[in-house]
Design goal:
Elements lengths: L1 H26 L10 H17 L11 E4 L2 E4 L2 E6 L4 E5 H11 L1
Antiparallel strand pairs: 1-2, 3-4
């Protein structure tokens, strides 16, 4: 449910992001007289912040092969436990196994 709201937010803010990109490109043009004023720099900076806040970023790589639990190094493998069109949930096998062994 939360991912659907997150996706809806990105869909609704896409026109705002595109408008902010256009404003920044227009103000940052060296042939535009506003480019050299403090007002123009402020407008360009605000447009860039709006564009960055509404930009969609990709998921970074997991990149964790081992971890230390109670002084022992445990190998971690990432396995998809559930996958749909919108999201993917993962299980970290090494951590789950090590945590259950140490709890009992």
């Amino acid at each position: 449910m939360l991912y659907h709201l997150h996706d809806l937010k990105h869909a609704l803010t896409t026109p705002l992001r595109l408008q902010a990109e256009a404003i920044k490109m227009a103000i940052d043009n060296p042939f535009n007289p506003l480019h050299y004023t403090s007002l123009g720099r402020s407008i360009a900076a605000n447009a860039e912040m709006i564009e960055r806040m509404t930009r969609r970023f990709g998921k970074p790589a997991f990149g964790l092969d081992t971890t230390t639990i109670n002084g022992k190094t445990v190998k971690i493998t990432e396995k998809s436990s559930r996958q749909s069109l919108l999201a993917r949930s993962s299980i970290l096998n090494g951590i789950a196994i090590a945590m259950t062994r140490n709890c009992y």
